């Protein structure tokens, strides 16, 4: 079963789509081993929480002092699984199937996020990401562009989140 | 909904991103089996429960995931400061004097 | 009706747009822009309802959200009715249904009005005094009586079909109130570039300016200036204006709750539009520009319809083009009401007199009054009113040297009162900001602040539009500067500003028996001056006690009109000054707020998260019945061919014990524990030994709290030297991960190990029963499933049905069992593949009920059902799970605490009823001697109890004092009507030697 891409509702202010699954890993290691990991992965690991780094189609998002989310095309998953040497103390755990990722886009995207997120998302710079809460559900939010975000939540929470995104998008379309 | 400064993210963020985790600076004894019943009881159950300045722990559970320490006034709910886990207990009076 | 009291062309309503609504079934015509109150007044209707306690006729007192009297029921269809809507705030629209409240059979003739005649039998503290005894009367007589009498308006009986929304909002400066002070503040802040939000509870912005069109600002009329100011604010991209939006509460760190009414003013709201939205605003700075609320005067008959606040009359005149009567009398202790009298006189209302309690009033005012033909009665009091359903006359008396002279009666159809103004500081009080009595202003003013806020204008006791504009401009600039902006302070040239002052009074002096006066303080709760004095006489000293004894200020208006008058009279009765008596505390919400707005999106299917597994859709298609487990919904049982629950569960149990069953175990918590110190970490967390567990093997893990009590359990598989697959209970997953992170981060940060939740990475299908291997074997690649190669408690990575899998040989049923983990996206496909492969072997899907029974037949505990946070491994019979050689693990020290090693602790044992057909109730209490007197000594309780299909009888588990020493003992379970007998037994009912696992 693969996730379907669908959009709703037709509104110039907002589109919401569910992204197809790509490889996603949680990488944990001590910050002093970042350089070693970078060399092995061919991907820099940002040293500040909330920063992202990309190399080719791979992206690393620093979520905590010793935690990075690695996103990559499915075709590169095996290479990533094998990249880090056994001698390097780390944990690389695949979480591709754990999550559903929505992409939200449009001029009213900040209003839509404000339906569920208490933090001030407008202060988030493009290219940054963070773990946060959307309507009580833990989520990872990444700002891809001024008016484009991705919001990833655990699989079983996604219908709840999707329903609220849909409600919020409708409100915005109504202009209320 | 309080605003809490995460000393790891260096950001002040809304309370739903955090969970409370009890009094701070209550370290687990290195060798619990060496403790008397009374010492172990105190470690397990006895807390300061002050009216006023409270050293306490929070976790940025919906953020960077880190446990950290905070100084909060239990009367006003105002935070004096937050600091990383493992750092020594700050002397609040000295900090206040320095600020004045 | 004819709108006989409407002044053509006057006010801000749209005279070209008539609006028709019904009031108690009669059609009433108003204008677009009217409130229900202004439209009714335009038609000469003052009588809107009956009062709460005495059922006295009541009308409109104010023109704003402080209204205590004019509460009506409004409706737009089934489920869309609302009681206690303030007629002064509800806008009219075509088709709106309005009903008066608290009257039967009708508004004009009301049976409950008898209470008014017997009013002296309903004094303050009536409930406390009357319903004390006899005690037996409480349930049957008093409470039903109170319940019938209590409450105002009718609650809707249907579910509310409306949607409610919520949103977060962040800004630099939030300005509450859009009168002159708020507008000037918003202009200062907005021009500085600060992110500014200006909110007002009314349908349009302007506040006092809407009621003061004669004032000129910067050379323009007030309304022209207002239009220009609003146009400028609308043109600023950093400013957001929100009308119909009430700041309901002011919370920590400048969070303000706003309730925005989105559709209540619309005749045809858009389909699916939310009715209200709750905004949670986080502001850098807050400017409170909420103005002031006019005080009523306290005199006999001050509640009659037609008696209203003078400022309200001015608002109805100027904003809505409505005269509140043909012939008015004004009674006041403040200059502002004189201006109301002048405005009404100029609009053609016959103003018979201005009665001022002050002996001396400015010659400017009296001169103007005389020029307009208004009789001036300074140094006078009002001692009564007449009129059955509407004021018909007022009795006025001179006061000389404290003596009330002879009264005379003046005919009128409107009596306009003004006792001065109270700064509206409710939101400021929410912050625990303190108030200080200002004798000059005759009011409590803001003192010590606890939040980053400014109070501007009348809230600080500054009267007049010029003062409000200047103060607002300064407050807005200060707020913007505090947010790092460069802000200028605008100046305003104001002409024809009408300021003034007044005196603070208690109840007006009278020549009549004050004990018989109905001089109301709290109109909504029917509290009179006499009630306050009685409370003090009966020993109430604290204003908080006076409030609760009399219920003054405890109605839905929270005493916006009554608190200060109540305080003044209480202070007088106590012989103290007002500041020594102090105010009661205002609390959120500022005005009544719907539960819908507070609930927001969280109703119906969105009430809380419902987590579903990847296999949930299959279960639903099969007609499964679901049960909630933590936030998950899990398939409880799968009824077939019209089976009831008992039949379905018995069939599922038989299938697992005789053939094979499959079960969706995806909700089990899973944590990947990875790193060189993974085994060392688990050694410290769990009671069991892990260091020597070989990769490819699993073990039952038991997790305690530091207090020694069982917190969680689950099977843990070692996949590699440095990698463990930990499972937790469904409900415990998040808690266990948090607990592990706590120890890892704060106690043992030196360990090189990391924890990742993989609960949702994997879908899990459990296959249990003698045919389990037969079904599974053909689907598995890369693994020999024979008992020799893959024995009980083995784990391996392999391929199942073509999907990468982690395969566990585990059993929570006592049967040969496997648990197949595959990436969640393949969960449904795996399930369907096993389902198909199992068809020749009698495969049966089973739910959580069968799972619970099968494990109970083996005596396996369910954490949270057989344990309750006070059960140790010893209590649960799990001593075998403790690593005896381990020096330490979480909770180990506590297992030697005196009360844990003490004799007689409750222990988990089996219980078999004497009558095998009786299934005990879970939670039932157990006693040793059924004949002892009440209260009996309870020695334990039933934790799990089921019909066991395998045993052909009921089985139960119970926590019983010294249970393991009572094997064979008969105990008693008292139930309503009978006492059951049961024998203590080992909690391992089926295959006690575990032979069925070794196949």
TrEMBL record, chain A:
SUPFAM superfamilies (UniProt xref): Folate-binding domain (SSF103025)
Pfam families, sorted: SoxG (PF04268)
InterPro entries recorded: SoxG, TrmE/GcvT-like
Entry superkingdom: Bacteria
Official protein name in the record: Sarcosine oxidase subunit gamma
UniProtKB/TrEMBL annotation, chain B:
One of the GO biological process terms: tetrahydrofolate metabolic process
Origin: domain of life: Bacteria
A Pfam cross-reference name: SoxD
MF terms in GO: sarcosine oxidase activity
This protein's name: Sarcosine oxidase subunit delta family protein
Provenance organism: Rubellimicrobium rubrum
From TrEMBL, chain C:
GO molecular function: sarcosine oxidase activity
Domain GCVT N-terminal residue range list: 617-886
Occurrences of domain Aminomethyltransferase C-terminal (ranges): 906-991
Swiss-Prot/TrEMBL keywords: Oxidoreductase
Keyword Oxidoreductase applies: yes
Superkingdom as given in the UniProt entry: Bacteria
Record InterPro entries: 2Fe-2S-bd_N, BFD-like_2Fe2S-bd_dom_sf, FAD/NAD-bd_sf, FAD/NAD-binding_dom, GcvT/YgfZ/DmdA, GcvT/YgfZ_C, GcvT_C, GCVT_N
All copies of domain SoxA A3, residue ranges: 518-600
Family the UniProt entry places it in: Belongs to the GcvT family.
Xref: PANTHER family: AMINOMETHYLTRANSFERASE, AMINOMETHYLTRANSFERASE, MITOCHONDRIAL
The protein's name: Sarcosine oxidase subunit alpha
Lineage: Bacteria, Pseudomonadati, Pseudomonadota, Alphaproteobacteria, Rhodobacterales
């Amino acid at each position: 079963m693969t996730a379907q891409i669908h959009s709703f509702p037709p509104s110039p202010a907002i589109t919401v789509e569910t992204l197809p699954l790509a490889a996603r890993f949680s990488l944990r290691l001590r910050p002093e081993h970042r350089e070693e990991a970078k060399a092995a992965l061919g991907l820099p690991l940002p040293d500040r929480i909330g920063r992202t780094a990309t190399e080719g189609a791979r992206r690393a998002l620093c979520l905590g002092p010793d935690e990075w989310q690695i996103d990559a095309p499915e075709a590169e998953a095996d290479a990533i699984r094998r990249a880090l040497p056994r001698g390097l103390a780390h944990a690389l755990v695949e979480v591709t199937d754990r999550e559903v990722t929505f992409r939200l886009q449009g001029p009213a995207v900040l209003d839509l996020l404000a339906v569920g997120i208490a933090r001030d998302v407008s202060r988030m710079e493009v290219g940054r990401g963070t773990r946060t809460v959307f309507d009580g559900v833990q989520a990872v939010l990444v700002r891809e562009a001024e008016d484009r975000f991705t919001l990833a939540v655990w699989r079983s929470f996604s219908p709840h989140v999707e329903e609220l995104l849909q409600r919020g998008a409708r409100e915005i379309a109504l202009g209320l | 909904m309080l605003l809490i400064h995460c000393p790891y993210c260096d950001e002040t963020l809304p309370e739903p991103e955090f969970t409370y985790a009890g009094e701070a600076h209550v370290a687990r004894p290195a060798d619990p089996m060496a403790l008397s019943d009374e010492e172990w009881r105190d470690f397990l159950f006895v807390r300061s429960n002050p009216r006023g300045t409270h050293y306490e722990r929070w976790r940025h559970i919906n953020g960077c995931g880190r446990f950290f320490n905070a100084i909060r006034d239990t009367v006003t709910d105002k935070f004096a400061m937050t600091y990383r886990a493992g750092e020594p207990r700050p002397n609040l009076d000295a900090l206040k004097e320095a600020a004045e | 009706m004819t709108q006989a009291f409407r002044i053509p062309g006057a006010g801000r309503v749209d005279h070209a747009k008539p609006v028709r609504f019904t009031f108690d079934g009669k059609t009433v015509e108003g204008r677009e822009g009217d409130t229900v109150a202004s439209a009714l007044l335009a038609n000469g209707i003052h009588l809107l309802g009956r009062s709460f306690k005495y059922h006295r006729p009541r009308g409109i007192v104010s023109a704003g959200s402080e209204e205590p009297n004019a509460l009506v029921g409004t409706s737009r269809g089934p489920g869309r009715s609302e009681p206690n809507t303030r007629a002064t705030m509800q806008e009219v629209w075509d088709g709106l249904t309005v009903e008066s409240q608290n009257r039967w059979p009708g508004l004009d003739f009301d049976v409950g009005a008898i209470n008014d005649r017997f009013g002296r039998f309903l004094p303050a503290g009536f409930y406390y005094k009357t319903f004390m005894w006899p005690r037996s009367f409480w349930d049957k007589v008093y409470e039903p009586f109170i319940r019938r009498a209590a409450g105002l308006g009718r609650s809707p009986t249907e579910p509310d079909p409306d949607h409610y929304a919520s949103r977060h909002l962040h800004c630099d400066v939030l300005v509450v109130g859009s009168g002159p002070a708020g507008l000037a503040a918003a202009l200062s802040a907005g021009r500085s570039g600060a992110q500014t939000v200006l909110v007002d509870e009314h349908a349009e912005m302007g506040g006092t300016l809407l009621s003061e069109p004669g004032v000129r600002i910067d050379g323009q009329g007030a309304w022209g200036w207002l239009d220009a100011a609003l146009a400028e604010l609308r043109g600023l991209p950093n400013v957001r204006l929100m009308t119909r939006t009430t700041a309901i509460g002011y919370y920590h760190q400048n969070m303000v709750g706003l309730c925005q009414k989105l559709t209540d003013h619309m005749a045809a709201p858009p389909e699916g539009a939310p009715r209200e939205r709750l905004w949670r605003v986080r502001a850098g700075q807050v400017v409170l520009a909420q103005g002031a609320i006019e005080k009523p005067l306290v005199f006999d008959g001050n509640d009659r319809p037609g008696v209203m606040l003078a400022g309200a009359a001015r608002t109805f005149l100027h904003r809505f083009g409505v005269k509140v009567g043909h012939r008015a009398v004004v009674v006041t202790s403040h200059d502002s009401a004189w201006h109301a009298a002048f405005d009404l006189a100029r609009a053609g209302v016959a103003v018979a007199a201005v009665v001022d309690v002050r002996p001396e009033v400015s010659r400017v005012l009296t001169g103007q009054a005389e020029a307009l033909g208004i009789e001036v009665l300074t140094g006078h009091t009002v001692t009564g009113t007449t009129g059955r359903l509407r004021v018909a006359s007022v009795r006025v008396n001179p006061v000389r040297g404290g003596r009330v002279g002879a009264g005379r009666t003046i005919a009128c159809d409107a009596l306009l009162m003004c006792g001065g103004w109270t700064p509206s500081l409710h939101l400021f009080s929410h912050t625990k900001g303190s108030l200080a009595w200002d004798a000059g202003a005759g009011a409590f003013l803001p003192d010590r602040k606890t939040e980053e806020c400014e109070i501007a204008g009348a809230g600080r006791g500054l009267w007049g539009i010029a003062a409000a504009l200047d103060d607002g401009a300064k407050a807005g600039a200060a707020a913007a500067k505090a947010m790092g902006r460069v802000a200028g302070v605008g100046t305003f040239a104001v002409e024809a500003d009408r300021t003034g002052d007044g005196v603070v009074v208690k109840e007006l002096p009278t020549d009549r028996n004050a004990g018989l006066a109905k001089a109301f303080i709290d109109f909504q709760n029917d509290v009179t001056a006499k009630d306050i004095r009685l409370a003090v006489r009966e020993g109430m000293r604290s204003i908080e006690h006076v409030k609760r004894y009399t219920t003054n200020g405890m109605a839905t208006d929270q005493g916006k009109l009554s608190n200060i008058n109540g305080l003044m009279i209480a202070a007088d009765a106590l012989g103290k000054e007002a500041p020594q008596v102090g105010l009661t505390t205002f609390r959120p919400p500022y005005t009544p707020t719907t539960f819908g707005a507070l609930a927001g999106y969280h109703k119906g299917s969105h009430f809380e998260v419902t987590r579903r597994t990847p296999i949930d859709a299959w279960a639903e298609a099969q007609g499964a019945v679901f049960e909630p487990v933590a936030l998950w919904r899990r398939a409880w049982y799968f009824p077939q061919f019209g089976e009831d629950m008992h039949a379905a569960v018995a069939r599922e149990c038989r299938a697992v014990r005789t053939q094979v069953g499959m079960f969706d175990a995806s909700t089990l918590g899973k944590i990947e524990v990875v790193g060189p110190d993974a085994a060392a970490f688990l050694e410290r967390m769990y009671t069991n030994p892990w260091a020597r567990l070989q990769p490819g093997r699993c073990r039952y893990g038991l997790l305690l709290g530091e207090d020694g009590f069982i917190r969680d359990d689950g099977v843990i598989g070692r996949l590699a030297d440095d990698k463990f697959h930990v499972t937790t209970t469904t409900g415990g997953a998040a808690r266990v991960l948090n607990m592990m992170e706590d120890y890892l981060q704060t106690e043992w940060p030196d360990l090189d190990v990391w924890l990742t939740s993989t609960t949702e990475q994997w879908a899990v299908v459990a296959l249990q029963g003698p045919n389990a291997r037969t079904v599974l074997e053909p689907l598995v690649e890369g693994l020999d499933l024979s008992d020799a190669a893959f024995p009980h408690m083995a784990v391996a990575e392999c391929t199942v049905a073509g999907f990468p899998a982690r395969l566990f040989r585990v059993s929570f049923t006592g049967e040969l069992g496997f648990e197949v983990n595959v990436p969640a996206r393949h969960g449904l496909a795996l399930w369907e593949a096993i389902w198909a492969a199992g068809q020749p072997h009698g495969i049966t899907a089973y739910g959580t009920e069968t799972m619970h029974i099968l494990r109970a037949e083996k005596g396996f505990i369910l954490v949270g059902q057989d344990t309750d946070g006070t059960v140790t491994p010893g209590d649960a019979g799990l001593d075998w799970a403790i690593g005896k050689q381990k020096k330490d693990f979480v909770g180990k020290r506590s297992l030697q605490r005196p009360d844990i090693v003490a004799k007689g602790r409750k222990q988990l044992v089996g219980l078999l009823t004497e009558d095998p057909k009786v299934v005990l109730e879970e939670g039932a209490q157990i006693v040793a001697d059924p004949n002892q007197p009440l209260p009996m000594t309870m020695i334990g309780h039933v934790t799990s109890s089921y019909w066991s299909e395998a045993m052909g009888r009921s089985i139960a588990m119970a926590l019983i004092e010294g249970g393991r020493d009572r094997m064979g003992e008969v105990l008693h379970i008292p139930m309503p009507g009978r006492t059951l007998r049961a024998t203590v037994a080992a909690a391992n009912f089926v295959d006690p030697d575990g032979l069925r696992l070794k196949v």
